[in-house]
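re: ur question from yesterday

yeah so i grabbed the chain u mentioned. its 157 aa long if i counted rite. heres the sequnce exactly as i have it in my notes:
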Amino acid sequence: MKKLKNLIILRHGPFEGRGFLTTEGKAHVSERARQLKKLCGLDPAATTIVCSRELRTLMTAQCMISVLGLEELRGCCHQQFFSNDVMCDTSGAIEVIKRYGENYENLIVVTHSEMAATLPHVFCLDVISLTDTMFRSVGYGQGFVINLEKRICEFVN
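ran it thru and got these structure tokens back, copy pasting raw so excuse formatting
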């Protein structure tokens, strides 16, 4: 990961039915994107988004792309970012993060609750040897910002 400065791991926004974001969900995700842009100084040319294949994560990613001024969902959708109550493919997710981390300074991962809670902890321990991270449940639109240069992990809600 030569270039990666900020790894942002977020849970998708509030949804209904088959995975469509609610009106509240879209507003919440838009506000989160503005917050992250300010917090991390996200440059659209140096930022990309990857997500799982589920509609709610795709809609969250598309909403963030619009607010952040990105061209498109440059990172294709990865099944590694899907999790269920039984397991998370954190090793697969970390491989995807490493691949995109070589080309972008800022990587936003839009995923699901279990992965959003587990992946930051695993990444910090296994990849950057940062041990003072927190493991916690993650609500809709919440997540973590991992600054690799400063070696800090912050919860965003």
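noticed a couple things. The helical segments are 23-40, 55-68, 90-101, 113-126. also The chain has one domain: 6-156.
anyway ttyl
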